[in-house]
Known about the structure:
Structural class: alpha/beta
Amino acid sequence: MKSWTDIFRDTRLLIPLAFFLCWEGCLQLGLYAPLLRPRSYAGNVERIMRTIKGSKLQPDLLILGTSVAYQGVNVELLNQLLEKEGLVVQSAASEGAILVTQHSLYRELAPHLKNLRGIIHVTELTFPWTARRLIDPSNRSMVAQINRFRAFELLERHEFRLSAQDRAFLLIRSITYQQDIREFVTNPLRRFKELGKIREGAHPDFAYINREKFRLSAYPANDLGECMDVATKGVKEFNEAGQRITDNHHRQAVWRTCEVAVRDPLTQSGYSQWNALFFRQMARIHQDAHERNHQVFTVLPPYSDLIPGLNADWRLEHWQEGLKSVPGTPVLIDLRGSLDGPQNRDYYYDTIHLNEEGSIRFTRALAHSIREEILPRLKN
């Protein structure tokens, strides 16, 4: 029988082990990160951090949020509108990012932003009832890109229950990137084309500028059920003038956001405890910002008039009550009605995300609020 020392001298074990350690070492050094699938959650966060850290801009205000802010705020236009005030704004909003991911981005980027004075937190009325204690795969992959060794402490502060699988995913890059590497090896040419396309149209200072032309109004409906029916059946891709008004990706986005809106989180069990958990997590962000002398401004964005129930006034009371428990002096800016009117659905790509025209209009409304409500409160 072989001794333990003989086993570890066996080249059949040493060669694969050495290869794994070298491979893992390369991944730990971040050599693979630039090759991540650009439209994946991890790839998106990596690009946002790389863009902000590489930008010459030194923002006074940093935007945090989900895809609503990511697609809804035209940061290039916002900076042009605030040029006279001498304010610079940057956005770290990321698609699908829950509070702990937004908090991770803030903590990672804040030391690099020497002029930062405030946070514009674009959130949504329904969010307090969507908090959970188990981290979903998409946010786990995003947090893994953002100083994952500090992520354990932050996840614990946000009261997440991590499984052994979660911990291995955060620590071992071979596991973190397993699925992405498999896709890359299967079709490397496609990956390089995707990366080239993203970088070709990339702005040197801003991670994303909305160029979507399609409109929610292409799918006429009186309620969410009818919206799903129309999206399921589909509509003509071209209008009478020969202009393309939709495609399959757009149709799926409309259907998916209608389907999500049907499931009001208040109808789910345990909504009161999730509401309480959300504001405890929110308080963690405000606490860190308060310690850095950064003021947090909470902005409620508009939804399309197809889902008025999710943006109802009575939900605002929960926010007003919940924000009383956060450190500092919270400021709530209500922009839910900024796109109201007969053309409301022309400004949306789907039920919650804006198209290019909508993002321009919302950005102008946000710029006005920054001048009137945020600028006077900014700490020098």
